[in-house]
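Hypothesis: this fold can be encoded by more than one sequence.
Test: take the structure tokens below, design a sequence, compare later.
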């Protein structure tokens, strides 16, 4: 069931989303060669709590950290670790959900670590382009299938593929609400967007094939072929004549 949010609820989701945006702003300069993903987790945890919010991924179905940290071929749910030290040329996705006053905001960014090549830069920019092409369609009355299709069509333009088993989603009191928002879709199909829907559009992009494998930790999802992956996500609200992205600072 899709929950249409009241202006008051939208304001609360916006506040939680701001916490996420601010945490990213503060963590970005710390994403450097030589730091561990556990250190980034620790800092993000601190930034979120300083804003009177809670890192909602912590304990979610038993997830053991405050942020998902997914490096290179890991497409999502990488678990931060002291042993995982970032190196020049890595790309790392941080995917963070903050809950504040009972409402959630959710976003993901893929960062270039130190000196990266064209291959890495290209992946980061493709994921962002997929997001913006999809979000640019958002307004009341538009078919969800159109939005989802734009993600895959953009990825395909670059010979990339998209996640099949993991999707974007509605958001509110719960981190994951209806509707589910896949990275692929059929134009003219699915539900129509309505004013007051709060959703997360999150392109998860594979450099090559989208077959995945899950590690024994039960969380880490990675590209079977070892290709690079990138992910870009924002929380947004469908407005009267378009949308407003909530997990970005003005
Ligand atoms: N933040 C993720 C999303 O974009 C969900 C992570 S679930 C967790 O939907 F359990 F890994 F935290
Ligand atoms: Co999400």
């Amino acid at each position: 069931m899709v929950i249409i949010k009241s202006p008051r609820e939208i304001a609360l989701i916006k506040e939680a989303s701001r916490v996420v945006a601010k945490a990213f702003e503060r963590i970005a300069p710390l994403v450097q060669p030589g730091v561990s993903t556990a250190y980034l987790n620790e800092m993000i945890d601190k930034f979120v709590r300083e804003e009177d919010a809670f890192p909602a991924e912590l304990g979610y179905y038993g997830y053991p950290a405050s942020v998902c940290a997914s490096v290179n071929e890991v497409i999502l749910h990488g678990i931060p670790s002291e042993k995982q030290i970032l190196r020049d040329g890595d790309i790392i996705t941080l995917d963070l959900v903050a809950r504040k006053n009972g409402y959630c905001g959710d976003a993901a960014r893929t960062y270039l670590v130190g000196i990266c090549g064209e291959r890495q830069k290209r992946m980061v920019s493709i994921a962002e382009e997929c997001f913006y092409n999809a979000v640019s369609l958002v307004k009341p009355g538009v078919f969800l299938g159109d939005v989802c299709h734009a993600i895959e069509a953009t990825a395909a333009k670059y010979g990339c593929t998209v996640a099949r088993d993991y999707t974007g989603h509605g958001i509110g009191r719960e981190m994951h609400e209806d509707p589910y928002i896949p990275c692929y879709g059929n134009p003219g199909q699915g539900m129509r967007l309505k004013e007051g829907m709060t959703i997360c559009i999150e392109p998860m992009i594979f450099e090559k094939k989208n077959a995945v494998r899950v590690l024994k930790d039960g969380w880490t999802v990675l590209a079977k072929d070892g290709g690079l992956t990138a992910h870009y996500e924002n929380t947004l609200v469908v407005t009267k004549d378009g949308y407003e992205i909530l997990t970005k600072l003005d």
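The two ends are 31 Å apart (CA to CA). The chain has four helices and 15 strands.
Hypothesis status: open.
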